[in-house]
Amino acid sequence: MIDNPRVDLAVAKYGRSLVIAAIAIGILSLVATGWVLATPTTTTINQETGTEVVETEVLTSAVVVQDGLWERDAVLEERSIYTLNDTPDVTLETQTSVPSDETSVSHVVTVRYTAEHDGQAFWDETDEVVNTSVAAEDGVASTAVTLDVRDLAERLAELEDELAGVGTVSLWLDVTASYDTGANADERHLSSEVGLSDVAYWFDGELYDRDSKPVYTEVEVTETPSSTLVVGLAFLSVAAFAVGAFVSLRPEVDVATARRAVHERRYAEWISHGTIPMWIGDHHIALDTLEDVVDVAIDTSERVVHDRQRGLFAVVTDDVVYYYSDRGVWEETAWPDIDLERRDAVDPASPQETAPVGGDLPDPDDEDAWNQI
Q1: Which of 318, 330, 331 has the alpha carbon at shortest distance from 286?
Q2: 3-state helix, strand, coil in the chain (%, to 5)
Q3: Sheet holding 168-180: strands in order across?
Q4: How far apart are CA 219 and CA 222, in angstroms?
Q5: CA angle at residue 207 from 209 to 116, to 5 degrees?
Q6: Stated pTM of the model
Q7: For the range 17-24, what are the long-range contacts, defined as Cβ-Cβ under 8 Å and sequence gap of 24 or more?
Q8: What three-state secondary structure class fits 48?
Q9: Range 329-338 contact pairs with CB under 8 angstroms and sequence separation of 24 or more
């Protein structure tokens, strides 16, 4: 059991309220713990459930227009080089493979001329040859366009004549494929320089792109109750019930006694224990509280003497006694703790065990007489 006068005073003053409050807190904490465990929260999150892959490539092909190296009307596909005389027209087929036919796809094909000086472009010209939206069939959206390479070569030659000695002119093929699957949307760019000579043409860049993106789906996730919260509520419940049990099982102490014990501990440095004779001092001044007695001791640089047998706190200065006792005035502290049951059990005929009745108290100055009592 905790031995603390302040605790005794708090219990004496608020014991019933403390027990009621502790039990209420304990019950509420216990209910809250059960509720947290029984009703876990759910959260909606975007969870990765798969991957979407979109591939775009440009396939080249040309039809032979004369007999010679190849037979007329032969179709040449995906060649590293084509001849101008045999295959003056080239077909560019842009194919975009998509996850489903519901995907929206568009293709833009442009021919671009650029002029560079010391590696820096200072002029360009763009000719858009196709810009269309196309539906996917069996997971492929396809767009085809045919270019007359001789026209491109003529325009390139014109620019080279105009910019001779100024810069280098290049011919580029640019393809933009845009798509929207519903879950993902993007725009991909492919580009290749077109090489030209007097007799042949070719494509230097790789006209292929692969785009992979995750697919997210909203799912409900049940969250595990916070262990910190559960432990905290459980601890609070146990602590509250423990406080209630502590207060209810603590020996009952009246407020006055508890308050005096608090003051005794607070002013312990000024209090000494001893015995105070009844006849000491000519004048006895009763003070209202123990604090008042301590104040007198501080003012007079004296000690407070605590006579435990008489329940008396006193400061003796010259012939004046300043005192405090919860038993009453000075004379009423002279007979402390009389055991009435023991006195009733004594033989009335035994004079040494019978207290004087109706007689006067001994003279205050007669110490021997008082010791015989």
Answers
A1: 330
A2: 30, 40, 30
A3: 82-83, 200-203, 185-196, 168-180, 104-117, 120-134
A4: 10
A5: 115
A6: 0.53
A7: 18/243, 18/244, 18/247, 19/244, 19/247, 19/248, 22/240, 22/241, 22/243, 22/244, 22/247, 23/240, 23/241, 23/244
A8: strand
A9: 329/284, 329/286, 330/284, 330/286, 333/307, 334/278, 334/310, 334/361, 336/309, 336/310, 336/311, 337/309
The edge-to-edge listing of strands for the beta sheet with 271-273 is 271-273, 304-307, 312-317, 320-325, 283-286
CA distance 89 to 78: 14
Provide the angle, in degrees to the nearest 10, between the axes of the packed helices 5-38 and 227-249: 140
Residue with tokens 């200072």: 122
Length in residues, the chain: 373
Do 74 and 237 form a contact (C-beta atoms < 8 A)? Answer: no
- What per-residue confidence (pLDDT) applies to 200? 97
First to last CA, the chain: 39
> How far is CA 109 from its chain centroid?
53
Query: Which residue's entry shows tokens 């003053």?
Result: 13
At 363, list the tokens: 């003279």
| Region of poorest pLDDT, from 9-13, 97-101, 208-212, 352-356 | 352-356
Q: Rounded distance, CA 101 to CA 68, Å?
A: 43
- Output the six-digit token pair for 121: 């472009």
The DSSP H or E segment spanning 31 is: helix 5-38
* 8 Å CB contact between 213 and 55: no
pLDDT digits (tens, 9 = 90+) for 83-116: 999 999 999 999 999 999 999 999 999 999 999 9
Residue 221 pairs in a beta bridge with 43
pLDDT mean over 37-54: 85
Please give the DSSP secondary-structure letter assigned to residue 251: P
